């Protein structure tokens, strides 16, 4: 049993040593770390070579700039281990993830997907509320669809790729790669849940997300964000066509949520976008007509009231799972 840990790097010289060392400190001799220098313009590439080129578990790849999704895909091409984990080069891995994962797989040898929790910390002294990634449960699900349905019903379905360890066979068989868009995880993760078999979810925190002002996700929203969400919704609508039951219901709610995010950015936060992008959003709204989007187009306040009560009822959804301990 072993894990390929793929770490894209782009202009994070100040953080990468702490990040990569937090992974090195807990891997086994059979694991591999694949560092992809994605065309950094600072000294990240040189620092990686200096610090890690002689480490027996580390593979270093230097490429032109493909973006986060492309860098992950490039790393995946070199992955040789049984499981794959995508880690970000400015964050910190909590002690115990790899050990806990191996312990879990020894109990559940058919496990396809290991889903865990995370917390955030900030480089600044800002008093803004930090994102939380609490799964709220330790549970075994028969497959990824069941896990997605439960997590989304409880408003605990976080798409970030660094919250999942996946059996590589699942990735290879289903050609699970990332698109070169912003919000690539929102497009990728539902596809992952759709094809994963046995899935473990734990409330244990194994990842520390660094919030920094100049990161991709903290920068000012633009049309690229909207286009990323459009790609994600189109992908999710394709999943709806080939599924049914509770998984479909939760996917449709996810689609409504993503459409509402785009609508708010354009029409309430005044993000400037092209007419073509507005037309694409209008088509998505038209394809997903219902009470929620009817309210969204007429009163954002009433839409939020609707969403408040919809979530309350959604959390009452009964989805079977098996409680687990000591993850």
TrEMBL record:
Molecular function, one GO term: hyaluronan synthase activity
Transmembrane segments: none
Enzyme class name: transferase
Pfam families found in the cross-reference section: Glycos_transf_2
EC nos: 2.4.1.212
Keywords tagged on the record: Glycosyltransferase, Transferase
InterPro entries the record matches: Glyco_trans_2-like, Glycosyltransf_2, Nucleotide-diphossugar_trans
Domain Glycosyltransferase 2-like, residue spans: 4-120
First and last residue of the signal peptide: none
PANTHER family in the record: GLYCOSYLTRANSFERASE, GLYCOSYLTRANSFERASE 2-LIKE DOMAIN-CONTAINING PROTEIN
Protein name (record): Glycosyltransferase
Organism (species): Klebsiella pneumoniae
């Amino acid at each position: 049993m072993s894990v390929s840990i793929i770490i894209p790097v782009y202009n994070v010289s100040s953080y990468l040593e702490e990040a990569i060392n937090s992974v090195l400190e807990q891997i086994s001799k059979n694991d591999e770390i694949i560092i992809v220098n994605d065309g950094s313009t600072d000294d990240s590439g040189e620092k990686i070579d200096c610090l890690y080129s002689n480490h027996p578990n580390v593979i270093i790849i230097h490429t032109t700039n493909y973006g986060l999704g492309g860098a992950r895909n490039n790393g995946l091409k070199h992955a040789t281990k049984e499981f794959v984990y995508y880690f970000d080069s400015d964050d910190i891995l909590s002690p115990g993830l790899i050990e806990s994962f191996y312990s879990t797989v020894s109990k559940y040898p058919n496990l396809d997907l290991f889903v865990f929790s995370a917390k955030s910390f900030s480089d600044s002294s800002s008093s803004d509320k930090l994102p939380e990634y609490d799964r709220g449960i330790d549970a075994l699900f028969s497959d990824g669809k069941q896990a997605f349905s439960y997590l989304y019903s409880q408003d605990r379905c976080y798409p970030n790729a660094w919250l999942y360890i996946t059996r590589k066979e699942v990735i290879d068989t289903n050609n699970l790669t990332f698109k070169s868009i912003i919000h690539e995880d929102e497009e990728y993760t539902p596809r992952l849940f759709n094809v994963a078999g046995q899935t473990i979810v734990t409330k244990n925190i194994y990842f520390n997300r660094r919030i920094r002002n100049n990161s991709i996700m903290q920068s000012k929203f633009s049309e690229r964000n909207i286009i990323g969400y459009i790609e994600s919704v189109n992908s999710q609508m394709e999943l709806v066509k080939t599924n049914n039951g509770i998984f479909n219901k939760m996917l449709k709610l996810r689609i409504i949520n993503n459409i509402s995010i785009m609508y708010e950015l354009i029409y309430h936060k005044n993000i400037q976008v092209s007419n073509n992008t507005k037309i694409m959003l209008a088509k998505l709204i038209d394809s997903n007509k219902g009470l929620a989007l009817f309210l969204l187009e007429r009163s954002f306040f009433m839409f939020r009231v609707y969403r408040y009560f919809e979530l309350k009822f959604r959390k009452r959804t009964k989805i079977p799972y098996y409680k687990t301990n000591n993850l």
